[in-house]
Amino acid sequence: MRLQRAYRPDIDGLRGVAVLAILFYHIGWDWAPGGFVGVDVFFVISGFLITRNILYDIGAGKFTFKRFYVKRIRRLFPALFLTLAVTLSVGIWLFSPAELERLAQSTLYALFSVSNFFFWGESGYFNPDAFTKPLLHTWSLGVEEQYYLIWPSIVLGLTLIRKPVALASVLLALCGLSLALNIGFIDTEPEAVFFLLPFRVFEFVFGAACVWITINAPLGGKLSELAVITGLAMIAWAVANYDHSIPFPGINALLPCAGAALVILGGKAVYSGRLLRARLLVGIGLISYSVYLLHWPLIVYYRYLTMQEMNGLQQSILLLIALLGGWLMWRFVEQPFRSKGAFSKTAWGQKLVWVPLSMSVLIVAAGATWANKGFPGRYPNELFMSSKQIAAERSRYWKQVTNKDSRLLQGDPDAKHVIVMGNSHAIDLVYALRGAGSRIDFDFLNTSHRCFNFGTPRTEQDAALCSQLLEQNYHAAWDGVDAVYLHDSWSRFDGPDLRKRLLEIRALTDAPIYVFGPKMTFRKDVLAIARAHMRLQTLNEYGMRFAFRKNRKQINDSLRHLLADDFFRKRNIFFVDVLSAQCGESIEACDILSDDGKFMYFDAEHFSREGAMIAGLKIRRLYPELF
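Structure tokens predicted for Acyltransferase family protein:
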């Protein structure tokens, strides 16, 4: 069968399905918790279309690398350049210096198609809130554009394979290798698996395989009808049932990717294909690239300005604005630059002069913003931490506790020996105790933010890590310990599970065990709260609007009630009420700014050095025996 490159409206219909899934997910509609799989559907579509176009040009004797990349540049860069320029311009007006500096960095990475590496590098424990990253969605463009660099050469090599069985074996090998990498690294390096191309290759191969299946064994009749229905059902099930608790991509990505492949294979179906060929869905598919580029900065900046979760009306309005804005950018930016557009026929357009000119302007603007640390002179210094200050606050957490000989952990030679066990909030505790004058000799045992109750996985994906850490911690040197301090973020309360963990620790040592309850945390980064309010005198009162008061109090009261039982008292297991020490019995005075105008937190839940010292002094007044 001869390869055809006729326009297929069903493919644009599938694009429409993918971008709507992403939109529904990002605006926060509860019935689309797995809408992120729309990106995977896009990867399958891209694998199909790019492979088909390359093979068609090879068959027609028209393929050259220059021709291929010029078409990709015309297709992708105009809308991307405009998105980057507008997003950076709005950020200069709106963002704090540290956030703007990070935006400038991500602009440069996106400009050179490597933003997936940038956001992978940011994906540690203190990863900034996604809603301060208006270019976060460009990670997928980075993956796709890196795929374009390698795939034409691979396809040229595949054309040398004449036997369908051998060709299928090679495609299966590529797919299998990528999946094997997923399985091998998804537990230990989930961020790398999500952001980097080698772990996504199998999704593009799914689409590429559809080209050869279409050539050698096209579906028709009832099979094509069944393929479309089944494929759409698989995608819809993933959108409705997946969420961030599942390991992804990995094996779980097979469902939406296989669904997309089935839809492509059966998309010409007479009856079931009508949905995909519906004018509205096809129209959304045509503008899907511009909609995708526009929607996330729009959502980020709206939420940044309002500091609130969106209600149904706001979500619907933003959805319509994203679609309308996407159409405008498609009509007046994408289309004029495409290969058949009027603009492309001018000398300026043919020579692609606009590419280096646009890149130069963006490089200068983003580079200057980065070099000037986000232009801190735009705002009063006392309302912001610089990026250097924030980086220093983050880095001190792990650098000074991973080394047992660190000055932070070392106490006086004749001081008591205490094990502190927990996640980064336990490090907050160490700084609080040190700031209030404690000279205890500490050992720190890390339980990770991915585990609660000091060893129980928060999700299935965390099970291996939590089990490993728990085993390591239980084999630590518990002999001769004078006390055990347990502190956690208390992301949830599970009394029976905590009871089990406490008895396991009790079996390791006879020393008294002190369970430190939660401190106050906030829905928003305290620096963003300060930026929104811009008045130092009433900042603490304003900040309480964003405090997790109800949640923290419920967990605090549950812990107090559990540990007040004689069962625990007889076993020398005690509760330390950090929340009341920090905020008072009514928990209405949880300051984010100290009396001398210093930030008590450097994000939404971790103390600054100043905040840790002040909290430690308050704890010392109520519990002097801990010092």
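The mean pLDDT is 90.
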